[in-house]
Automatic annotation (TrEMBL):
Record-linked InterPro entries: NatA_aux_su, TPR-like_helical_dom_sf, TPR_2, TPR_rpt
Residue ranges of the region described as Disordered: 575-637
Gene3D superfamilies (UniProt xref): 1.25.40.1010, 1.25.40.1040
SMART domains: TPR
PANTHER family (alphabetical): N(ALPHA)-ACETYLTRANSFERASE 15_16, ISOFORM A, N-TERMINAL ACETYLTRANSFERASE-RELATED
Basic and acidic residues bias: start-end ranges: 598-632
Cellular component per GO, a single term: NatA complex
Each TPR repeat, start to end: 79-112
Keyword set includes RNA-binding: no
Protein name: Uncharacterized protein
Keywords of this entry: Repeat, TPR repeat
Length: 714
């Protein structure tokens, strides 16, 4: 042991109290005790490290790091100093450095429970699952009476794919527990997790037998029934699976997964079994007439006259009731040309008959419909024409609907959407604002209006509009960032990019990127919480979801915008290029044009600087009025705009897509644009190959192939 590490008995007792203060989060009290030791022993490394830890938790980060590093210098072989240094790095989300510190700490005390536990949490966060198995095994050996350690080891084996070992580990833990007591949620979840391990191992018979065995001890009865039905279907026990799924449907006929499960279990989900599937769905439809899930599947599997009869009933019922979402329900069938023609013919017939007779069809015994039926039929037709990009017909139809009833918000929203699809963003924005004013308390239409304003380039107006529904005490944009509102940051980034205000655009795109980093970091606390509370199935699902987080469409959209801006910065002409076409000019004319361009550029720069100074002054005033409010130190995104490595920065957005969204064309077209500018021919070629594998007829493929051949002189 380091001689300087030993303390007299009095100070040693004080140091133990310091450790206790940290565990109880009594940082100020612990800091005073640390100072009392350091008065007599100013070179005691472990006390210096603990003082640094307290300072770090009291928001004195720089001072805290200084004390911890000082403690390490005085006692480089102390596991406490290394552990504390690791805790500081972990708090800063610097997981790689924290892992190195924990490794050093274990080198000097390999049996410390606290270090092993923290190291296991870090390995889970970093997805070092092979090393996690070793750490969890050591924890179980050190303290075999701790249930979370056993559960953590089983999960570690599951995450590396060793399901049999995971089952054995969990079984050993269950054997040590008292299973004869009252049924509890924790016990139920533990047993259902055990069953999930058997399922993932592929042994469905063992999973089914285990499920039957644990039934009396399970509180999640619906989950138990779902698993039983699934296992029966997997094992080919058709009659039992049929009965199991019908029981689930009787309990919840609105869950489409149960109906699909029934069709799969009975082998009727194929294209060649549509007649049999149609018969079963018709029976279920008669039993549960209000189930939308059964109705949708009945339309999916129906063909010919059967489809016409069913869709006729659905359309008439929805138009009579005034269901605005009926078009969204129907357009999924537009991929089938025959079904599309049937729906179109029916709706056109409705419109004509309702206009003339007030009925859905022209027969004499038809019941007269309410006037709103004609309104919603026109509404449907407008969306139908817009879907086929028949803009003139769509606008004409929606105008008829507005003249019929000029106070319905959905009509104006659809008109705005039609104009947007026609590329008339300014008009679409104005129409959407009209819709917003019809219902000032509707947050959805408010958000839609703000989105359309951004598309039209009215950024300040969009922020003001969306601010009607944000907190009053802070700026609307800051509140939206605090709420991790992705759509607004992405749309605003695209709006700034269109105006070539690239700094602000990149700032918005990086804000979205930070949302995903924060979501990933926020899972850290769940590594202990879920083991303690036994929410094991949800925990494993969360880990797997986090691994695919950046494949989300919102991230893809933000990444695409950011890469396009970085490419624009990389392609930006040098300062000496004034952008003037000097062809056919005399020397005097060239000089005059250059001077004019230089003056215009200088004036634009001065205006920009004045605007920037005014905004910074406004921020300073706000900060003076309320010092607690966060102040944006880089409102114009200068940090991102002044990058010297735009292509490398663009790759930061593309690499997650290459890992998690390899089936998207955009992933490889963006990668190609970066690699061809970096002269990385092999990587650019790989992007071309991936694009061809996904869709060789995509417009970008031929263009990029020609660029690749020309640039590389192949």
């Amino acid at each position: 042991m380091n001689a300087k590490r030993e303390l007299p008995s009095k100070e040693s007792a004080v140091f133990k109290n310091i450790l206790r203060n940290y565990e109880h989060k009594q940082y100020k009290k612990g800091l005073k005790l640390a100072d009392s030791i350091l008065k007599r022993f100013p070179e005691h490394g472990e006390t210096l490290a603990m003082k640094g830890l307290f300072l770090n938790n009291l928001e004195k980060k720089e001072e805290g790091y200084e004390y911890v590093k000082k403690g390490l210098r005085y006692d480089l072989t102390s596991h406490i100093c290394w552990h504390v240094y690791g805790l500081l790095h972990r708090a800063d989300k610097n997981y790689e450095e924290a892992a190195k510190c924990y490794t050093h700490a274990l080198k000097y005390n390999k049996n410390d429970i606290n270090i092993l536990r923290d190291f296991a949490l870090l390995q889970t966060q970093m997805r070092h699952y092979d090393a996690l198995v070793e750490t969890r095994s050591e924890l179980v050996q050190q303290k075999s009476n701790n249930p979370p350690f056993w559960i953590g080891l089983a999960i570690a084996y599951q995450l590396v794919g060793e399901y049999d070992t995971a089952v054995t580990t969990l079984q050993a833990h269950e054997d040590n527990l008292k299973m004869d007591g009252p049924v509890t949620f924790e016990m139920s979840e533990l047993l259902m997790y055990h069953n999930t391990l058997l399922e993932e191992s592929g042994n469905y018979q063992a999973a089914l037998d285990h499920l039957v065995e644990i039934e009396p001890k399970v509180t999640d009865k619906s989950g138990w029934k779902e698993k039983r039905a699934l296992f029966l279907a997997k094992l080919g026990k058709v009659e039992e699976a049929d009965a199991a799924y019908r029981l689930l449907i009787s309990e919840n006929p609105y869950n489409g997964q149960y109906v699909k499960g029934l069709l799969v279990a009975t082998g009727l989900d194929g294209e060649d079994k549509k007649a049999e599937a149609n018969q079963i769905l018709s029976e279920l439809r008669s039993q549960y007439p209000r189930s939308k899930a059964i109705e949708d599947l009945a339309l999916k599997y129906a063909v010919g006259d059967s489809f016409k009869v069913k869709v006729d009933a659905v359309l008439q019922g929805s138009l009579r009731k005034g269901v605005p979402s009926i078009f969204n329900s129907m357009k999924k069938y537009y991929n089938d040309a025959e079904k599309l023609r049937t729906i179109e013919a029916l709706v056109l017939e409705y419109a004509e008959s309702l206009a003339k007779n007030g009925t859905f069809n022209s027969s004499n015994d038809a019941t007269r419909e309410p006037p709103t039926a004609y309104l919603w039929t026109l509404y449907y037709l407008a969306q139908h024409y817009d879907y086929h990009r028949q803009t003139d017909k769509a606008l004409e139809t929606i105008e008829k609907a507005i003249q019929h009833t000029p106070t319905v918000v959905e009509l104006y929203m659809t008109k705005g959407k039609i104009l947007k699809h026609a590329g008339r963003a300014e008009e679409a924005s104005k129409v959407m604002d009209e819709a917003r004013k019809l219902d000032l308390q509707d947050r959805f239409i408010n958000s839609k209006c703000a989105k359309y304003m951004l598309r039209a380039g009215h950024i300040a107006e969009a922020e003001k509009t969306v601010g009607l529904f944000t907190r009053r005490d802070i700026a609307p944009l800051q509140d939206l960032i605090d709420m991790q509102c992705q759509w607004f940051s992405t749309e605003e980034g695209n709006a700034y990019a269109a105006k070539k205000e690239y700094g602000k655009a990149l700032k918005r795109f990086h804000t979205v990127d930070k949302f995903y980093s924060d979501i990933f970091d926020d899972q850290f606390d769940f590594h202990t919480y879920c083991l303690r509370k036994a929410t094991l199935r949800a925990y494993v699902n969360m880990l797997r979801c986090e691994d695919t987080l950046r494949s989300h469409p919102y991230y893809v959209k933000a990444a695409k915008g950011a890469v396009q801006v970085y490419l624009a910065l990389a392609d930006k002409p040098s300062q000496s290029d004034n952008g003037i076409d000097e062809t056919g000019m005399s020397e005097a004319e060239k000089k005059k044009a250059r001077n004019k361009a230089r003056k215009a550029e200088l004036k634009a720069q001065q205006d920009k600087e004045a605007k920037k100074a005014a905004q910074l002054k406004e921020e300073a005033v706000k900060q003076k009025q309320d010092p607690k409010k966060p102040v944006d130190q880089d409102p114009f995104g200068e940090k991102y705009l002044n990058t010297t490595t735009p292509l490398e920065d663009a790759l930061h957005f593309v690499k997650p897509l290459q890992q998690l969204a390899p089936n998207l064309i955009d992933t490889h077209t963006l990668g190609f644009e970066i690699y061809i500018r970096q002269n990385k021919w092999l990587l650019a070629l790989r992007c071309l190959v991936k694009t061809a594998q996904i869709n060789k007829s995509h417009p970008s493929f031929k263009v990029n192939l020609e660029r690749f051949q020309k640039a590389g002189r192949f």
